[in-house]
Amino acid sequence: MTLGTDTMTSNITGEPILKVEHLSMKFGGLMAINDFSFEAKRGEITALIGPNGAGKTTVFNCITGFYKPTMGMITLTQKRGEHHLLERLRDFEITKIAKVSRTFQNIRLFSGLTVLENLLVAQHNALMRASGYTILGLLGFPTYRKASQAAVDKARYWLEKADLVDRADDPAGDLPYGAQRRLEIIRAMCTEPELLCLDEPAAGLNPRESAALNTLLHSIRDEGVSILLIEHDMSVVMEISDHVVVLEYGQKISDGTPDHVKNDPKVIAAYLGVEDDEVEEIAEKLDEGTV
Amino acid sequence: MTQSSASENLMGKALKEALFAGATAFGLFLLYVGIETYQNINNQLVWRTRWGMLAIFVVIAAVSRFLMVAFIVPHLDRRKLAKAKSGILEISDEKSFFHKHFLKIALFALVIYPMVSVMLAGTQGSLKYVDNFGIQILIYVMLAWGLNIVVGLAGLLDLGYVAFYAVGAYSYALLSEHFGLSFWVLLPLSGILAAFWGIILGFPVLRLRGDYLAIVTLAFGEIIRLVLINWTAVTKGTFGISGIPKASVFGIWSFDIGAANNFTKAFGLPMSSAYYKIFLFYLILALCMLTAYVTIKLRRMPIGRAWEALREDEIACRSLGINTVTTKLTAFAIGAMFGGFAGAFFATRQGFVSPESFVFLESAVILAIVVLGGMGSLTGIAIAAVVMVGGTELLREMEFLKHVFGPDFTPELYRMLLFGLAMIIVMVFKPRGFVGSREPTAFLKERKAVSGSFTKEGHG
Amino acid sequence: MEYFIQQLANGLTLGSIYGLIAIGYTMVYGIIGMINFAHGDIFMLGGFAALIVFLIVTSFFAGVPVALMLLIMLVVAMLMTSLWNWTIERVAYRPLRGSFRLAPLITAIGMSIVLSNFIQVTQGPRNKPIPALVSDVYHFGAITISLKQIIIVVVTAVLLTIFWYIVNKTPLGRAQRATEQDRKMAALLGVDVDRTISITFVMGAALAAVAGTMYLMYYGVASFNDGFIPGVKAFTAAVLGGIGSLPGAVLGGLLIGLIESLWSAYFTIAYKDVATFALLAFVLIFKPTGILGRPEVEKV
């Protein structure tokens, strides 16, 4: 019944940006992720879905370096063709060197800094270089002044995309929930990532905020940035993603286009929580077109 | 009708609470105030009662509780209610306008302060004001501004800051003694050495978080002090190092009495140590301004923003590609460097250093000034230093209290007691310090202060 | 070998005292996440209460049996410090609960300054010596163990047992643990959180008073600034053992007592505190949450 990885990869066309191979993560005796492999393609929105506790966030944390995987290889291929083995980089280097940026399930903004400052902090490494690691900047060299103006311009560009320009000078902690989500996403974008990882970006949003989020995500994809997102809300996923990977109990159970996944009996079983033998029944019913 | 019964109720409640407070005070102070232990002529420990004193304590507790419950709390509630009803925002443009001018006025006052004290109190009489108040307060301002980088901006709780102050002071004392280097060479060197120690001590411990970091920094502070006490071959132990040379005016004029280029002689002024103190006052003022300038500049640089971001959320920092270890280290090192500058200044001002000056209490006082002032706010911290240090210094001057409490009364004894009480009272009523809001480092349209309720205080 | 055992006994005695104080730190930290800097001074207050009671009782009744005398001292000291710590929590810490993390720390440091200066002002700055309470000494070969040491270790062991029972087996202990885990949830489930926290402060203070009395009996002298050094060492012990953990506090206390006496015996007495603090830094670098502390899981 298990769908092999090989059979699926043959369907994929285009260049992969992220390749996760045989990823396993053990917490004490618990196997949170078990031999998990998938690929995300450049320029696409890839969704990682699964029921609560399936291990989605753990996969995310392995990719973004917050956990060191027990086993497995995570390869990121950049536009210029450089390869980076993410499991060997430290967490901040994954953003700095490999150009993978992320958001968090529980929004992590710098709530006491203004919205604009949040976006400037995200451009830390670029500004650090421009300020000659603080020394030239302290001495008043013009390179830093120019760079900081450019940083503000970039922040403004993203603020416009996220419809947050009017709130730029307010503390981030003062924004409504949906705006905080968008801010966290554009803050990640300010690090100039090639791959943006979003951990449940739609969780807790009302329909209007959800729509604003979708617009933002599409405009990010149009910039040529690939997106990997976690969601357990199927409806959101189906609407925006190009490619869906389904995880249950730390293992991949399905992988393909939204339509393919939607009709996969294993996925339906996982989401409805039916017994194994009922899966067959559902599959039959699906074929009949009654569900 | 209802109003009078409500106020009767209130009075009854206040009376009850006052009785309770009095009873508690009686219990608390019965042994410690009601009984006095002292050594008699045979050197034996004996005791006598002090019922009168105990009664005073009990009455004060009861009466103040009564006033609190019956009048002060209802009054504050009414005021809060009125404020909420009127709906006026607390931060208005008018305030920030005053704020800007306040800084200029304060700086101007500081610059003319020594001259005014000379004019008002005479050359010799100005010593007290320039040295005991001016220099003393400015040293604490500088130390607190230095620690502010570590605690206020980067959110790293450092309970051993005085160690870097000690490193600076001993660097100056030892290097000038053994190598005869001048103050102007050793001032930067002391800062660099302190920063170097900051990095050495910081490196292993900066991955610790919150209170663990606090206790390890406290431990390092104590280790440095204990080494200073026990490494007698170099530091002369508790005797300390004396005869530390005075600073000169950039090597042009000296303040040594015998020197040919003596400052007072060069200007034909009457001999007085007051000129040296005035010089020192401007020196520490300049050092403070340097600290403030660097802090303000750094806050607008990526490193300073990274510090504040670190205070707000370390994990988010790492997700944005910020190397948190080097970011913390730079905060630690730069904070330590200013501590080192202040230490070198302290050594040259005193002419004497000993481990006594670098006890934990000093770290606690500096930290208290930072928190009482409002973490991150230079103005607030300066105000806190003036209030706390100036206030307790003032107590030394209160000779008239002797006439009130009798000749045995030494106001100095109560200095730290009052300092501690002030710390508690300020924190209970203003937990975010005098200045709770934060000035943003960049703005798109207008600069708006960030209310203290949004800023975090760091976990590491 | 005898020398070593002798030092072991001395270290154990000292360690017991540190352990008793450390429990107060660790419990308060566990329940409200605050470093109660004034706890060392509560210990000092306990010692002073015992000293004053001793003076009063001996001046009225000359031949009080030692056991009774000690009992009176312990009870009065415990009552005194309990009242003090209860009041301090009520007046200075409770208004700050849930506010900004550094505020209670600063208040506690302020309280520590207030307490030691209060005693300095009311009782004078000089050391207060009392005649030896217990002077019996037992010889085992070359090893000398005093009755004082035995009393200290036994009292500590008995109190720890009682304490362990309270925390693990009684409804009060359950309330404490619940408050420690999640204060809001505990309150929703009917735990009187304020009362539980107050009792925790009282319990910590009572143990500090025992430590203070033992300290007075052991060294025969009390001073207003006695609170700081033992306080910092006990806090170090609590962190070393893993702050928040009761057995950790005792273990840390014993460890520090042992290091201190062994270091003084075999190396130089001058650097004994340096050794203690260096050990703390060393342990934390390799085990950032202390010996018995639960590892902190970084929630992302």
Task: Reconstruct the topology from this structure.
The complex is a heterotrimer of chains A (291), B (460) and C (300).
Chain A: H1 5-9, E1 16-27, E2 30-41, E3 45-49, H2 56-63, E4 71-77, E5 83-85, H3 91-96, E6 100-102, H4 115-122, H5 124-130, H6 135-138, H7 142-161, H8 177-189, E7 195-199, H9 207-222, E8 226-231, H10 234-240, E9 243-248, E10 251-256, H11 258-262, H12 265-272, H13 276-288
Parallel strand pairs in A: 3-8, 3-9, 6-7, 7-8
Antiparallel strand pairs in A: 1-2, 1-4, 4-5, 9-10
Helix pairs in contact in A: 4-8, 8-9, 12-13
Chain B: H1 2-32, E1 35-39, E2 45-49, H2 51-86, H3 93-153, H4 162-179, H5 183-205, H6 210-230, H7 232-235, E3 241-242, H8 263-266, H9 274-299, H10 302-312, H11 314-319, H12 324-350, E4 352-353, H13 360-373, H14 378-396, H15 400-405, H16 415-429
Antiparallel strand pairs in B: 1-2, 3-4
Chain C: H1 2-32, H2 39-60, H3 66-93, H4 102-123, E1 128-129, E2 137-140, E3 143-146, H5 147-169, H6 171-181, H7 183-188, H8 193-219, E4 221-222, H9 228-241, H10 246-266, H11 272-286
Antiparallel strand pairs in C: 1-4, 2-3
Helix pairs in contact in C: 1-5, 1-8, 1-9, 1-10, 2-3, 2-4, 2-8, 2-9, 3-8, 5-6, 5-8, 6-8, 9-10, 9-11, 10-11
What does this structure look like?
The complex is a heterotrimer of chains A (291), B (460) and C (300). By secondary structure, chain A is α/β, with parallel strands linked by helices. Chain A has helices at 5-9, 56-63, 91-96, 115-122, 124-130, 135-138, 142-161, 177-189, 207-222, 234-240, 258-262, 265-272, 276-288; strands at residues 16-27, 30-41, 45-49, 71-77, 83-85, 100-102, 195-199, 226-231, 243-248, 251-256. Chain A has two domains: 8-99 and 193-257, P-loop containing nucleotide triphosphate hydrolases (Rossmann fold), CATH 3.40.50.300; 116-192, no CATH class. In chain A, the strands form two sheets. A six-stranded mixed beta sheet of chain A has the order 6-7-8-3-9-10, with helices on both faces. In chain B, the strands form two sheets. In chain B, strands 1-2 form a two-stranded antiparallel ribbon. A two-stranded antiparallel ribbon of chain B has the order 3-4. The mean pLDDT of chain B is 82. Chain B has two domains: 2-85, no CATH class; 100-429, ABC transporter involved in vitamin B12 uptake, BtuC, CATH 1.10.3470. Chain C has eleven helices and four strands, in the order ααααβββααααβααα. In chain C, a hairpin with a 2-residue loop joins β2 (137-140) and β3. Chains B and C meet through α1, β1, β2, α6 and α13 of B and α2, α3, α4, β1 and α9 of C.
